[in-house]
C-alpha cells in the first residue's frame, strides 16, 4: 500500500465521526443504535506556500489513486499515528498564489 508523505500546514481540521441510527416514533420516543463500534476520523487539509514540485507530486499521487477510489497510508502529524485513508472526494483544489507558490486543499477520510 502506498504512503502519502505530504505534510499539511497547521492548524488543520480533524473530525471524529460516529455512525448512529436514530429513530423518532410518533409518541415522541427516540431510539438510537450505534452502527460502528469505534469512530472514524476525517481531516480537512490546507497547505500554503508550496512549490510547483510539491503540488505536482500530490496531483500525481491523487491521479495514481484514481481520486477517492484507492486507499493509502498517511501519518497524522497531530498524534503521529499512521491511518489507512482515502481522499474524501474526487477533486483537489489548488491555486497559484505567487510566481513560485501554490495553495492546495483536500480532505481525507479514514477507512477500516
Topology summary:
Elements: E1 3-4, E2 13-17, E3 20-24, E4 30-34, E5 40-50, H1 52-64, E6 72-75, E7 82-87, E8 93-96, E9 102-110
Parallel strand pairs: 1-6
Antiparallel strand pairs: 2-5, 3-4, 5-9, 6-7, 7-9, 8-9
Written overview of the protein:
The protein has 112 residues and is mostly beta strands. The chain has one domain (3-110): Elongation Factor Tu (Ef-tu), domain 3 (Beta Barrel), CATH 2.40.30. The chain is 12% helix and 46% strand. The chain has one helix at residues 52-64, and strands spanning 3-4, 13-17, 20-24, 30-34, 40-50, 72-75, 82-87, 93-96, 102-110. The strands form two sheets. Strands 1, 2, 5, 6, 7, 8 and 9 form a seven-stranded mixed beta sheet that branches. β8 (93-96) and β9 form a beta hairpin.
Shape: elongated
Taking pLDDT < 50 over at least 5 consecutive residues as the criterion, the unreliable ranges are none
Q: H/E element string? A: EEEEEHEEEE
Number of helices: 1
Please tally the β strands and state the result: 9
What is the CATH level 1 assignment? Answer: Mainly Beta
Domain tally: 1
Name given to the CATH architecture = Beta Barrel
- Give the rounded overall mean pLDDT: 93
Percentage of β-strand residues: over 45%
Fraction of helical residues = 10-25%
Strand-pairing-aware structural class? mainly beta
What is the oligomer described by this structure? single chain
Q: Biggest sheet: strands, sense, closure?
A: 7 strands, mixed
Instruction: Write down the Rg.
Output: 18 Å
Terminal residue distance: 14 Å
Fill in the CATH topology.
Elongation Factor Tu (Ef-tu), domain 3
